[in-house]
Design a protein that fits this description.
alpha/beta; Rossmann fold; two-stranded parallel sheet; 8 strands; extended; membrane; potassium:chloride symporter activity; SLC12A_fam; SLC12_C
């Protein structure tokens, strides 16, 4: 606790120092084994069993958990010391999954694109940072009570229940990360909030994953709204220098599926190797483990030398 500067650690002894405690603990253990090695070992095992029992069966007390404060301080120290600039060799996708969401009257959460959550789980495999952002937009929602700055009690409870439901959805899809529901009157404003405010320090998402808009070719206002929302998402990702990934398809493999075949990459524009990295990460998941990767590079005869393009791709 002293080494991590935990504010919860406040010893009352004036001349306290962590080195004195370490020396005292080492001397105590040495004296135990010097007197009787067998009884010293039995005492250590007995104390360890008591600690395990207390950790799993004791009730929470009001003065808090010392380990929780230590973990918080360690995370804070590491986060403050991490360099925001990342070398190309160490680059890895930190996902921000953007999808529409809605909460019904019974506080159940509905994700507009549930298949993309399974794909995000397979892409990350429990590694790195994944943030699931659900934009809940409704122009008819009454966010605040009439004539006052306080939120309606019913809507406040729906917000709390929505955040809890998001955690359950992530657990069902085996996603290790964080989830957040953004409530807004306008979908574009929700996108801006998610992309700008998600993450912290070096743990900010560098990739935005979204589903190809369903019904984009529908005539009328509905199709126009879908296309406008999709274009705004791409614009926001480009402005804030995020890698934009679009998942398009009628169905995605479930976590219980085992795929075989080829993962084809069509290299049309040089993107720094992101297209090669994504199938590599997918193949680390058991769903895609038995698939092969094939690369097809498109080269123009006028300005591209096929031999040079092939040599550059082999260096990745």
């Amino acid at each position: 606790l002293v080494l991590v500067n935990d504010p919860n650690w406040r010893p009352t002894f004036k001349y306290h120092h962590w080195a004195i405690s370490v020396v005292g603990a080492v001397l105590c253990v040495w004296m135990m084994f010097a007197i009787s090695p067998m009884f010293a070992l039995l005492a250590i095992v007995f104390c360890f069993l008591i600690f395990v029992y207390a950790a799993h069966n004791s009730h929470s007390v009001k003065w808090g958990d010392g380990f929780q404060g230590m973990k918080f301080q360690l995370a804070r120290n590491v986060l403050m010391k991490m360099d925001l600039t990342q070398h190309t060799k160490n680059w890895r996708p930190q996902l921000l999954v953007v999808t529409g969401a809605s909460i019904s009257e019974d506080s159940s959460l509905k994700i507009d694109d549930p298949e993309i959550l399974s794909f995000a789980s397979q892409l990350k495999g429990g590694q790195g940072i994944t943030i699931i952002g659900g934009v809940c937009s409704s122009q008819s929602s009454d966010f605040f009570s009439d004539g006052g700055p306080f939120m309606c009690s019913n809507f406040r409870q729906r917000i709390i229940d929505g955040q809890n439901e998001m955690k359950k959805v992530m657990q069902e899809n085996s996603i290790a990360g964080f989830g957040r529901i953004v409530y807004t009157d306008d979908f574009s404003d929700g996108l801006m909030s998610l992309v700008q405010m998600s993450g912290l320090g070096a743990f900010q998402p560098n990739c935005v994953l979204a589903h190809w808009p369903q019904g984009w070719d529908t005539p009328g206002q509905q199709g126009q709204d879908q296309r406008a929302r999709f274009l705004r998402l791409v614009q926001v990702a480009v402005v804030f220098q995020k890698v934009m990934m679009i998942a398009k398809g009628s169905s995605f493999p479930a976590l219980s599926d085992r795929l075989t075949g080829n993962v084809d990459i069509w290299w049309i524009v040089a993107d720094g190797g992101v297209l090669l990295l994504l199938p590599f990460l997918l193949r680390k998941h058991k769903v895609w483990a038995h698939c092969r990767t094939r690369l097809f590079a498109v080269a123009e005869e006028v300005c591209d030398d096929p031999a040079v393009v092939q040599r550059e791709l082999e260096t990745y």
